[in-house]
Amino acid sequence: MQVVVDSLLTQYELHGTGKLVVLLHGWGDSGKGFAGLARSLASKYRVLTLDLPGFGATEPPKGVWGLDDYAHFVARFLQKTDQPKVFAFLGHSNGAAIAVRGLGSGLLTADKLILIGSAGIRGEYKGRVKALRVITKAGKALTMALPKPMKEKIRRKVYHTIGSDMLVAEHLQETFKKVVTDDVRKDAENITQPTLLIYGEDDDATPVRYGELFHQAIEGSTLEVLPGAGHFVHVDRPADVERAVKEFLQ
């Protein structure tokens, strides 16, 4: 299904009946990344999966966006589609950071919150982005005379070396820089909803220590660490994630 929200053609899917559960995907992903989990939850809940602006089939933002902009967009999307009261937000990675910002600031409301491999602990990433800018500026000077294909090859290698996801969505590079320097721990301290944190033991992108920091910040939250799972915990350990989510929502 599609709807225009703030002049952006927006793709979403809605399945099942019952209390509304909204799924927010991570950077570079789309609502389709939740396909298995959404099908499972739709047996008992009304499940909404949304392609956030710039990803999947939703148009990119017309300017440089941050977490506040994405949280505002989710709120306006829910108003535009006349959705009932949200029972739970479930976010993965950057989608989880958007949910934390939205709920912690009061832009969004829900009864419960589920964070899977949540991003939003940004202190160490600021240094990486600063280093990335220095390296790329120097790299442009050094590679100026090289053919374009060779420039691109070197550029990708540099980004990979520093551990940047910037090239996952090259059309959103400035938005990426803004998002990954925005820390949501203060927002997390304002969250009063029952919260479930799920992290993969082998996650290098949003490691378990991020989950521990969120666990400390969100009073009464529950942290579950799944062994043998990386950043896409819901793909690596789908049965365990579905079990944990369903038990929490009950």
Can you describe this structure?
With 250 residues, the chain is an alpha/beta fold. The protein contains 10 helices and 8 strands. It has an 8-stranded mixed beta sheet, sandwiched between helices. Helix 1 packs parallel to helix 10 and helix 4 (123-142) packs antiparallel against helix 5.
Shape: globular
Helix-strand category: alpha/beta
Major β-sheet strand ordering? 1-2-4-3-5-6-7-8
Largest sheet: 8 strands, mixed
Q: Overall mean pLDDT score?
A: 88
Rounded to the nearest angstrom, the radius of gyration is 18 Å
Distance between the termini: 28 Å
List the helices and strands and how they pair.
Layout: E1 2-5, E2 8-15, E3 20-24, H1 35-41, E4 46-50, H2 67-80, E5 86-92, H3 94-105, E6 112-116, H4 123-142, H5 148-162, H6 173-179, H7 185-189, E7 195-200, H8 208-217, E8 222-226, H9 233-236, H10 238-249
Parallel strand pairs: 3-4, 3-5, 5-6, 6-7, 7-8
Antiparallel strand pairs: 1-2, 2-4
Helix pairs in contact: 1-10, 2-3, 4-5
Provide tags for this entry.
single chain, 250 residues, alpha/beta, 8-stranded mixed β-sheet
Q: In short, what is this structure?
A:
The chain is an alpha/beta fold and about 250 residues long. Helices cover about 40% and strands about 20% of the residues.
